[in-house]
Amino acid sequence: MASEGPPSAPGSEPSQPRTPQHSFDTANDATAVLAAAGTVIGWTQSAQDLLGYRAAEVVGRSAGFLLAMPEDPARVARIAERCRTGVGWSGVADVRRRDGRRIEVDLRISASFHLDGRECFLASARERRPVWTVGQSVFDAFLTSAPIGMAVMSPQLRYVWMNETLERIGGVPREQRVGRRMGEVLPGLETEAIEPLMRRVLDTGVPVIDFEYRGWSWADPHRERAYSTSFFPLTDGDGTVTGICYMVLDVTDRWKAQQRLALVNDAGASIGSTLDVMRTAQELADFAVPRFADFVTVDLLEPVASPEEPGPWPSGTAPYGTGAARSGGGGAPSRPTMRRAGMSSVREGCPEAVYRVGDRVDSLPPPHDVRFLRDGEPVLIPALGAVRHLWAAEQPAREASIGEFGLHSLIAVPMRARDTVLGLTTFVRSVNQDPFEPGDVLPARELVARAAVCVDNARRYTREHAAALTLQRSLLPHMLPGGMALDVASSYLPADAKDGVGGDWFDVIPLSSARVALVVGDVVGHGISAAATMGRLRTAVHTLADMDLPPDELLAHLDDLVIRLSDEEFDGESSGTTVLGATCLYAVYDPVTQLCTMARAGHPPPVVVSPDGRVDFPELPAGPPLGLGGLPFETAEIELPEGSLIALYTNGLIEGRDRDADLGMSRLGGALAQRGLPLDTLCATVVEQLLPVPQPDDVALLLARTHELGADHVVSWEVPADPAAVAGVRARTARLLRTWGLEELQMTTELIVSELVTNALRHATGPIRLRLLRQSVLICEVSDASSTSPRLRHARTTDEGGRGLFLVAQLTHRWGTRYTPEGKIIWTEQELPSTGT
Q: 623 Cβ partners below 8 Å, 6+ apart?
């Protein structure tokens, strides 16, 4: 057994020809070395793999035992003689494997050669595989009617032969093509690109595989199709390229499927970029034109287009607000009222549209049955001309538009999300002559489904955002009572639509003795839960402020409250209103002393602008955010002369997108230093300068300009520790009230002063001091060195005393006790008499 070596070099004598269908690679053949007498003297692993014999079982034996049938000795002699003359031999032989199975092999014996002085032959074999042959008539029939279009082109790129499939694909008869070039008979099939490809194949002999292009068949010139073409060189016996064979496959279905898939995939990046219902509807229309349709309209149910109204039409029911119940006779539900939310057209200005964006729409495609909205199945009308008359009676303007602008095909898809009907999207073709096909319904449905989810998310967000904003604004103060101590202005801006309403808040709280508390805070998070949490904190601060606690003690109590609320949230069912991470700054301004006492819990420091325009950021101890517990809060006291400006704010004002907080504080100080602006104008100007674009967080800014309560509004006396001094105090009080023009309050005030001073002399220790302040109210204070608080009780009719504080409570607008480092102060407030006529 022998094998053919590598191909002969050009110009050398060719080796023994081999049968083309049985050519093989010697490296994979079973090979053995035979002596001249036929004895096996060499055996390879490939021979063992083919026949199953190991070398020890074969070497030294005659190769004849491997043959399935005895070989004719005369034939063997002729083969040997042929090999000795240097020609070699190849043919077919039957051999027997070690397991007894017979196989047919292609056998090759080389020309003789000498090995160690012995004449030898190299024999190689490969198992034959069955070869199926067909007749020429079958082959010709296959080429003619094959499902792939095929043609043969001459070196001049003229048609020589083509099969029936190519004739059908191109729509041009064979007799009009043969002898002519492609550009002469098919000018619309991108021949400018195809003919250079064929020329390249002629020049290089390298085939071009799967060249795709789009065109039109002459049999159907209005429908764009896609083709895949491959070009192969035709060569003669000496390898010369004598022509081109090309094959054409109609891949329109595959191309359309890819286009539809790409359309749906790309929609995600273009639709739903904002949380705005109307904008999302317009994005759907813009995306689909002209990629899918020439004219697109998006109509939303009225409650969807206006999210502040009640909810949309649930699936399986009649639409909200349009005669919702079915007709009494069991007929179809009433037609819903929709609003045009978006539209787009290949024609500028959308002249095809009967309704404009924002208009109320009361139309449905034929058969005008509202139930298709509820059922959710799209409507496909491939040829509008066939149903054009159905619009004539009910919607003549739409019928006229169909004729005027050549609208010829339509798909209408109900917009639904989460089993809720939201509206209707209509795709129409006019310039594109391809009518919509059943395969277009699925991508249309997918486009609308994606947009529907975005619309529903936007609708839900808009309603929640509006509710949170309403809640937050209802919890913020509607009036800022600075009294005679402060002029106050504020600005609050909710976060942009992307992040929603946050938990920023501020307040101005009147305290006793003409003092005023300024407070600002921030709750981490956005939405209704953050607004609700803000409301809880604001209420707690009001309650603690009424106790007249110093700022550090107030924050400590507030911190305890936050910890308790957080523990309740952790132990019980989550309500989404946890207050961990809240910050707060609390300041108390006294217009008599012009001192401002402040403490903060993780909040940015205030900004102070002196009357001469100097900007300062007071160094307050930072303090931990609320809810951490275990860490103290510290106060700082600064003097605010008459006309000073103090600004409290939240971090959204200084920490906008890509902005450094220190830089933001510097810009805030510069903006607040502007002179000559009214306080309200200054507040609005500062916010506008620092936030030229929508901000990612809520912004609160509280400005207060200080006033001094001068000596003409404040009088203070020491009271001797003698009960007889009460009469003198009453007399001095009466004279002061007459000086202030408050004679109407003289009798009442004398009783109040008498009762408070008497109680101090009786139950407290000195020194005792009486102070009267005339502000928006008349304030009376009696201070002593005792920390014991008086108790209001209701005396019985038989009691001789115990009615003093009860009378004080009845005669005053409000009263209370405030503790100081030196003791306590009992204070009252009386409303000033009206000066109006």
A: 555, 599, 600, 601, 602, 631, 632, 633, 634
